[in-house]
Model the fold of this input.
Amino acid sequence: MAESIGNTGTGMKLHTKILLALLIGAAAGILANTQLGGDAPLVIWVNKYLAGPIGQIFLRLLFMIVMPLVFASIALGVAGLGDLRKVGQVGGKAIGYFFGTTLLAATFGLVIVAAVKPGAGLPDEIKTELMTTYADDASSKITAQETGGFGINTFVNIVTRNPVKSAADGDMLGVIFFGLMFGAALTQLRPETAKPMIDVLQALNDVVIEIVGMAMKLAPAGVTGLIFGVTSRFGFALLEPLAGYVAVVLGALLLHVLINLSLILKFVIGINPFVFYSRIRSALITAFSTSSSSATLPTAIAVATEDLGIPPKVAGFVLPLGSTMCMNGTSIFEGITVIFLAQVFGVDLSLGGMIIVVVMSVITAIGAAGVPGGSIPLLVGILAMIGVPGEGIAIVLGVDRILDMTRTTVNVCSDLSATAFVARSERVWDASMVPAKSAATL
Ligand code: ASP
Done:
């Protein structure tokens, strides 16, 4: 499996290249807009034959793998739950905690972004123009219509009539449902019968993640093209909302830890949150510097057992699961990003639309791989689902590295809190067992 979506291996780090690409593309675009005007023939030519196609190729590579990725990761996840049922209570508690806190996180992020509205200040003409420029993506139109109204049919439509058509139409909910059924059915088969299929799904999952890694190598060129397209047409108008968006994501991540997780730690798990955070700091620092929950797993296990004194039996079971399933930070990030881009493009979301965003943020956060940028392709899928053009991703991709570092730190923090929760509720650990001195070297 691609260890990391984000390493080019040689020379400058990929995320540095993407950031530079954003700056260069944005500067060139603003220059073109202010000096020549967004409608100048040269600007139109560059957008049509150069910047546009490069950006489109990058986006299409991401779109290409959304459906297989969603299907494989959901089916595998559910098939894995079958095993967890055998493990019984401990597995059930872990999964309950993952779902509960991820849902809380997504809702929390959504409330903040809906209140602050970092993307809403744009004049109406710009919104309309953005939409007309970018909304020719067929998949966004089709699914936007379907999610437009919220009623009994919203639920009926989730049960896809034809999973292949759902995949072709960008109907993520249909594909998710099919993945759920597929995984559930696998748990009913005898293990020897299910194994070949599970192996195929695992390989499919690994292959698509590898493709994401390949697509991300094109990201610097893609981001330059996409951001040039946006800024040459719209000038400075979009940069201010972008700064607001970064502040909202970082603020929501911080508040989720300081308020939500701290309250859970204090009142449900019974440990002083600040003792907890200080003991797990080497895992948090590793998460921040690698942007990968999976890469942080060994450190997280060491921290849980040595610095928190949690029995290895619990830590060794909950943390590997949590590193791919429990992503509080990612669900906050996804919810905020989708709503922010909906605000930028002037897509009005009904209450039903908002609920869909929360549900999708939770499901895709659980399905995302714990590697740098693991949630990006899934995010592109949610955007298309609610009728926001996929090009919107260009607006946020250039600033994603810092958001990825921060959300991964929150993800790992939630994994470790899940481990403490399970250990506490199984009565094999409590706060008095935390070693007096931290063994961590950091
Ligand atoms: N980088 C994140 C993690 O590993 C996943 C993501 O949100 O992209 O936890």
User: Anything to note?
Assistant: The radius of gyration is 22 Å. Residues 2-433 form a domain with the Proton glutamate symport protein fold (CATH 1.10.3860.10).
